Amino acid sequence: MDNRPSPTAPFWKRNIYRVVFEADTRAGQLFDILLLLAIVLSVLAVMLESVSSINAQYGPALRVVEWVFTGVFLVEYLMRLLVVRRPLHYALSWLGLVDLLAVVPSLLALVMVGSRYLLVVRTVRLLRVFRIFKLGQFIGEGEFILSALKASRFKILVFLSSLFTLAILMGTFMYVLEGGENGFTSIPKSVYWAVVTLTTVGYGDISPTTILGQTLATLLMIMGYAIIAVPTGIVSAQMSRNAAASATAAAGAAAAVAEATAAPAAPAYKQARCPRCQSAGHRPDAGFCWNCGGPV
Question: Residue limits of the Ion transport domain (predicted)?
Fold first, then answer.
């Protein structure tokens, strides 16, 4: 439902709405670009503050910068609430919650140590770049992928369940083969090793040392490459089916439109000639000759 201010709203409210919510005007594009720049700089300040050497020298300045940007985002959020027709509807929407997250971590930092580092969630607001540069078709492509994932969810669930079972079995076997003296001190830790190996991550913090353990690890590594291909194949096949269904639906719609707009076909005429006068061109339902009146 449209959340624009009513036509009878004050001019300033309608004008601010066009600037902060619409990117099809020069002022709206400029506002969004400046907003993206502020988001990038604020996140950069938070990231630099986490570096000990930089924090020791520039920590106070970075915190001032952080609070300045927090004030800017707070004013922007309140301004959005002010100009929409239904403020609560906007506040509870996805974009409204994301905009609120740009401010909340700084306020939480007043009572919770370290909460300000959650300000990196501001990067989610960078998705506004799709709206600014008219990249809406990429959002459509994202929805296409999401629909394929949704249609494949049961197959993926079966695959993940099988993978979880395999990781438990392999982890237990490795715990029995290697034991605590080789780093496999418990079944959960051995299952962790199995997951790391199956996903081909390979941190290297735990590794088997016995021949049987190394043989099992080798098999698990080879299986890992095959496992990576399974969900990719599932989703790719579903995307192909969705694309084929969309193409078929589009072709059917085009054929229906063409049929509806096509000129009516001319009535067919009999090719038989009148046996009396040899005239042709009779209608299919004609019983008598149009020229002489004789039966045809």
Answer: 29-240
Q: How far apart are CA 159 and CA 208, in angstroms?
A: 27
Mean pLDDT of the residues in the chain: 81
Can you tell me the distance from the alpha carbon of 77 to that of 53, in angstroms, rounded to the nearest whole number?
A: 34
Q: What is the CATH number of domain 11-113?
A: 1.20.120
pTM for this structure?
A: 0.55
Class in CATH terms, 144-249: mainly alpha
Residue 233 pLDDT grade (very low, low, confident, very high; cuts 50, 70, 90) = confident
Q: Annotate 53-72 with DSSP letters as a single string.
A: HHHHHHHHHHHHHHHHHHHH
With 0-12 CB in 10 A as exposed, 13-18 as middle and 19+ as buried, what is 242? middle
Asked if the domains 11-113 and 144-249 are classified in one and the same CATH topology, the answer is no
CB 35 within 8 A of CB 128: yes
* CB proximity list for 173: less than 8 A, separation 6 or greater: 216
